[in-house]
Amino acid sequence: MAVGTKTLAPSELDTFEDQRLVEELRKAKEELFNLRFQSATGQLESHGRIRAVKRDIARLYTVIRERELGIRATPAAVEVPAKAKKTKAKKADAAEAVKEEAE
């Protein structure tokens, strides 16, 4: 996905996880910084690019905030199958279950 394009639609952002949204926001801010630097030194060729990147940043902030408020749903998390390792918490739960069955 290219930052600063019209292809960065809110419907496309719905499929991104929170960490990816934050990463895209970081990239967009970095690009905006570089564009402003180019503009200050007279090297910028496309001034419309600054506007597009600013809109993308606003779009990303909006999606992040809507998720915080519960207005926009987060994508379904893909669960990674865990190994059958017993942790202390699982062992304690298992011990309680055995205790309850005995009663």
Care to describe what's here?
With 103 residues, the protein is mainly α. The protein has a single domain, classed as Helix Hairpins, CATH 1.10.287. It is 63% helix and 0% strand. It has four helices and no strands. Pfam families: Ribosomal_L29.
- Give me the secondary-structure category: mainly alpha
Q: Would you tell me which CATH topology applies? A: Helix Hairpins
Largest sheet: none
Q: What is the first-to-last residue Cα distance?
A: 59 Å
Outline the low-pLDDT stretches: none
Q: Helix-strand pattern, N to C?
A: HHHH
CATH hierarchy, class: Mainly Alpha
Radius of gyration: 23 Å
Number of structural domains: 1
E-strand count: 0
> How much is the average pLDDT?
81
Shape: elongated
What fraction of residues sit in β-strands? under 5%
User: So, CATH architecture?
Assistant: Orthogonal Bundle
GO cellular component, one term: ribosome
Family: Belongs to the universal ribosomal protein uL29 family.
Protein name: Large ribosomal subunit protein uL29
Organism: Microbacterium fluvii
